[in-house]
Amino acid sequence: MSNPLFDLTGQVALVTGTSRGLGQYFARALANAGADLILTSRKLETLALFEAEMKALGRCVVSLELDVRDEASIRSMAAEAETAFGQIHILVNNAGCNVRKPAVDVTWDDWNLVLDTNLRGSFFVAQSVARGMIHHGYGRIINIGSVTSVAGYAGLGPYTASRGGIRQLTMSLAADWGKHGITVNCLAPGWFKTAQNRVMYEDEGWVEYLVERIPLKRPGQPNDLDGAIVFLASESSRYVTGQTLLVDGGISTGALRATVSQKEKK
User: Fold this and answer.
1) DSSP H or E stretch at residue 245
2) Domain 12-194+222-240, CATH number (from 3.40.50.360, 2.60.40.10, 3.40.50.720, 3.40.50.1000)
3) 159 catalytic, yes or no?
4) Where does the sequence pass through the membrane (predicted)?
5) Mean pLDDT of 222-235
6) DSSP letters of 156-193?
7) Which of 102, 142, 198, 230 is most buried, taking the most CB atoms under 10 A from its CB?
8) Crossing angle of helices 226-233/21-32, nearest 10°?
9) Which of 196, 250, 174, 187 is nearest to 219 (CA)?
10) Is 139 in contact with 130 (CB distance < 8 Å)?
11) Confidence of residue 116 (pLDDT cuts 50, 70, 90)
């Protein structure tokens, strides 16, 4: 028998950016916990295979077009989602992008692309969905941040600014909407291999450098996030809001050795 604290049966979860990557893992974990789904992408055809997979689990699934950089698209998506299901219980604000460049090479357009997608887009998606949540007196909003929400990395200036902003935005929205029965939290993954960063993981030297700095001695696997996303979406997190939950193998501890290893002594 399923644990009612983690059972999402009868609830509807909207997950943005589900054409690939972690968005699909988030949606799959929520579906496995019982939730019906609203999937989004800028191009509907990119959702067809994943929609079929989720329906095969016995879930009701609706795919909607969404460009988080376009206000009209956000409002249209939110209205269609409510029409389809009547109520959205869970929002996972996952859609995002990145530009990796030395800070001196970042262009005006690079900055706008990343901040408009990751930060402004997340806010206005949350705002549009929260209107219905306020009406129903219930909601779980999960903003997807990153270990860069709490740490800076060279070559990721716009991205770290956007993810740091997500953490602050999460706290602000939690304070704003808590009285309406809505919790707002930030799930912050560490270093996971995704479609966005797969090129980096092809560099064995960089992977070794990374793993040395992760206390659990490996990059994250997508399923490492399943428990966290279900926890934040479920009744079990009813008294948790405004928080950033890091799932990062411990790299946010600083993970720098203060002693010389036996190997180095030799």
Assistant:
1) strand 244-247
2) 3.40.50.720
3) yes
4) none
5) 96
6) -HHHHHHHHHHHHHHHHHHHHHGGGTEEEEEEEE-SB-
7) 142
8) 60
9) 250
10) yes
11) very high
Strands 12-15 and 90-93: parallel
Amino acid of residue 56: A
pLDDT at 153 over 80: yes
Q: Are 149 and 169 in contact (CB under 8 A)?
A: no
Query: Within the chain, what is the greatest distance between any pair of CA atoms?
Result: 68
Residue 235 identity = E
Strands ordered across the beta sheet of 61-65:
61-65, 36-41, 12-15, 90-93, 139-144, 182-189, 244-247
Distance of alpha carbon 251 from alpha carbon 77, whole angstroms: 36
Based on its alpha-carbon atoms, the radius of gyration of the chain, rounded to whole angstroms, reads: 19
In the set 25, 138, 153, 159, the catalytic residue is: 159
Beta-sheet strands, E only, within the chain? 12-15, 36-41, 61-65, 90-93, 139-144, 182-189, 244-247
Residue 230's nearest CA partner among 242, 245, 216, 219 is 245
Question: To 5 degrees, how large is the angle CA 104–CA 162–CA 16?
Answer: 130
Please give the single-letter amino acid code of residue 82: E
Confidence of residue 1 (pLDDT cuts 50, 70, 90): very low
What does DSSP assign to residue 68?
T
Which neighbouring-strand residues pair with 64?
Answer: 40
Q: What are 54-105's pLDDT values in tens digits?
A: 999 999 999 999 999 999 999 999 999 999 999 999 999 999 999 999 999 9
